[in-house]
């Protein structure tokens, strides 16, 4: 079991280093700084609220489901951050590149990624053709968190899973 854990940690470190210090970072740093904002509270809560209040069905239902999914996904995010207390990669690895004013709260799981998927999934379920735009945006938010040095790949994976499950469950309740 310890060999498996060691292999997973080594693999995650390599993937992180490739994404954080590799061609993605050098070529598109400004893009990733902008994309990461799409997982922040204003960029997720406000559009979901706007659709919930002002859009016709099925978009209003998707907005309501997104609001529920945001709340439902962030409860386990907050609990896991407190329980796991995983230090962010730039605090652990001196060679990691981090953005200005980096975060100091625990790394695991990624709240931005959970939020992006919590909003994308209900809208993709309500309007299936929208998945071709929404899923890449949610994925880009997760990738940006790694490229900017704020999260490990496993933080992003778990955040995406939490957001996806919350989005599907909330849409099932509302949609």
TrEMBL record:
Principal subcellular localisation of the protein: membrane
Molecular function in Gene Ontology: hydrolase activity
Keyword Cell membrane among UniProt keywords: yes
Keyword Glycosyltransferase: no
Descriptive protein name: Phosphatidic acid phosphatase type 2/haloperoxidase domain-containing protein
Membrane topology: Multi-pass membrane protein
Cellular location(s): Cell membrane
Highest taxon above the source species: Bacteria
Source species of the chain: Candidatus Reconcilbacillus cellulovorans
Transmembrane stretches, start-end: 30-55, 61-80, 114-144, 156-174
Residues covered by the Phosphatidic acid phosphatase type 2/haloperoxidase domain: 62-171
InterPro entries named among the record's database cross-references: PAP2/HPO, PAP2/HPO_sf
Keywords: Cell membrane, Hydrolase, Membrane, Transmembrane, Transmembrane helix
GO CC annotations on file: plasma membrane
Alphabetical list of Pfam families matching this protein: PAP2
């Amino acid at each position: 079991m310890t060999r498996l854990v060691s292999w997973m940690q080594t693999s995650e470190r390599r993937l992180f280093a490739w994404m954080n210090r590799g061609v993605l970072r050098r070529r598109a740093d400004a893009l990733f700084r902008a994309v990461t904002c799409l997982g922040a509270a204003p960029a997720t809560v406000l559009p979901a609220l706007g659709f919930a209040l002002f859009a016709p069905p099925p978009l209003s239902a998707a907005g309501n489901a997104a609001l529920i999914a945001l709340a439902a996904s962030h409860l386990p995010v907050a609990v896991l951050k407190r329980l796991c207390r995983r230090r962010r990669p730039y605090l652990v690895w001196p060679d990691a590149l981090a953005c200005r004013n980096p975060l100091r709260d625990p790394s695991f799981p990624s709240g931005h990624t959970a939020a992006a998927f919590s909003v994308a999934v209900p809208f993709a379920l309500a309007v299936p053709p929208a998945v071709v735009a929404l899923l890449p945006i949610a994925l880009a938010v997760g990738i940006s968190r790694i490229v900017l040095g704020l999260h490990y790949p496993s933080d992003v994976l778990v955040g995406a899973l939490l957001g996806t499950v919350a989005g599907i469950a909330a849409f099932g309740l509302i949609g």
